[in-house]
Amino acid sequence: MILKQVSLLAGLTLAGCASLEGKPTATSPCAFEQVWDTSIAALEGVRLLKADKDAGVLETNWVAVGSATQAGIMQRDVNKERVKYVIEVRREGPGAAATVLQLREEWSPMGVRMRQWRAVPGNPTDEEAVAAEIARRLKAKGC
Amino acid sequence: MRRLAIIGALAACLLGGIPFEAVADEKTEKALEERIKRLEKLVEELTEHEAREAKEGKEKEKEMKTGEKPLGFGSTGSGKLIYAKPFVSSPRTTVGGYMDLQYRLFSSSKSTGIGQPSTGAGSSSFDQQRFVPFFYSDITDRLKVAAELEIEHGIRSKSTQTDSGGIEVSLEFATIDYLIHEKLNFRAGIILLPVGKFNLLHDSPLNDFSDRPLVATAIIPSTLSETGAGFYGTFYPTRLSKLDYELYATQGFNGYDGITPLITAAKGLRDARQRVSTAEDGLDNNNGKAVVGRVAFSPILGVEVGGSGYYGSYDPASKRPLAIWAADWTFQRGPFELIGEAAWVYARDNHLELDGAQATEANYLGNQVPLPRRMDGYYVQGNYHFLPQFLRRWAPSYFTEASTFTAVVRWDSINTNSEFSDTKRERLTFGLNFRPIEDTVFKVDYQFNFEDGKNNRVRNDGLVLSVATYF
Do A73 and B96 touch (CB under 8 A)? Predict the structure, then answer.
């Protein structure tokens, strides 16, 4: 019984390590270092929380963004949303690829929801925009 | 620059519209002169307008800097003035609330469960159950104050009933948060106890059924809050996972009124809560304090499992501990949701009076049975969100992108004296609700209630229609 519970917990934990498969990716013949540097440059204006070059993972701090939702029957603009970006840079043949993930959370002062931030799906358009920006910058480098 | 562009554009239009052969014509010259005059006047007006706008902008900026907030609504007309109070639109404080109204139509007036709404002496009733104003203040970036003031069954100014059948005006929660770090924050005040998930998300507009789960009214008697202090925070163990925790020291249950035990099979833990206990006027009945906490782990978006516990003494001598354990789960995939909660209670020696004599109560057959030491219960609920596209095409102003229907089914089961008596109660509920916007919901539910197993049916099935909204 305990083994089953531990297995279930381990399974759920490992699910959190799932890859970013299917997320927007900027693939380039540029070297890993160039893609790494370009990915950092593409995140200009956002503070980095983590830049682990060995693991190829960049993670930004939370950034407040406009909320798409309004609160209550009076539809007030008091809800908040915040996003953080995780960019995974990995070697691919002679070049490298940068995959973009957006984590998004929302908060509302409405009732018990004021107690904490709640995870919601990231915006695929934003993810694509960051990936496109990395690709554009890499293309400009001409490699 | 803008002016030049306008003049250029207008001049181009003007000249472009004149045939060359007419240029020499005297009439045309006059017409041109007039047009130029009109243009000059227009440019003058534009310049004045721009200057006026710039001035107004600067004045507004100045007002904001000096802290004088512009009114959020029109300030003319007596009806509008009340809404134009600066505190309503102050960006640092949000005042809002939620309310609900339900109509209950049942087979009889018999109870449908501990802490569940009733229909009074008849078998149908309107009930404005909850009107809950709330306040949230961003005092500084690190200091927040949040509170909910609950008014239950507020229509009456007097009532002989107690608990959920009576009038209740109390602070459901009122907390001061000091944000230290995402992983560690301090909270003090009247705290919503993190026992199970439903207690933390109990607002009527958030729930897809009108009535709360049985386990959330009898075993974890929501709304369950106590005065205390502690810490909460969030970790992100992996890229996609999230771990939330809360840990508090609180006042604890008051399990006795004099020598009379308040934890019974008939009332569950409800009457021993600090917020309804008359013992010690809401203050502690002993020197022991309770510890309560919850850990919720979300490995990926849409999946969350939580475990929570409460431990504290409930008797005057601090020798009888009360323990509540709960597990909760949420699985979401596309339009489907599966949520639920299970809870177990152990109240040591609750079957004994404080002097050691047997403490009893009458069961449903009228026989005296020992008061409960153990209770348990759970619910499982499935939700399916949908909005037929033809409705959006047919009436787009009623069925917007934010609108949704939800089909809901829930199975409830509790036993408030699982050791000494057969006090099992079960419920099957089907429902359909419509949310024109996320924060407003119209619900239709039908309940099948089963008591004491299915062998002793009581006629108390019924329909509940309700509406709830945040405002």
Answer: no
Question: Which positions in chain A touch B298 (Cβ < 8 Å)?
Answer: 16, 119
H helices of B344-469, where? 389-394
* pTM (two decimals): 0.79
- Look up residue B219 and give its DSSP letter: I
Hey, are the CB atoms on A13 and B234 less than 8 Å from each other? no
- Give every CB contact of residue B48 below 8 A, 6+ residues apart in sequence: none
Q: What is the DSSP letter of A125?
A: H
Same domain, B34 and B158: no
Residue B120, in any domain of the structure: yes
Which segments of chain B have a pLDDT < 70? Answer: 1-27, 49-91, 159-167, 452-456
Q: Give the CA-trace dihedral at A24, A29, A31, A32, to 10 degrees.
A: 20
B375 secondary structure, DSSP code: E
- Tally helices (H) and strands (E) across chain B: 5, 21
**Which tokens go with A100?**
């973009």
pLDDT at B332: 95
Nearest to A16 among B240, B402, B469 (CB): B240
This complex has an ipTM of 0.82
| Domain interval for residue B49 | 2-65
**Same domain (yes/no): B26, B107:** no
Count of domains for chain B: 2
Distance CA B375, CA B382 (A): 24
CB B433 within 8 A of CB B455: no
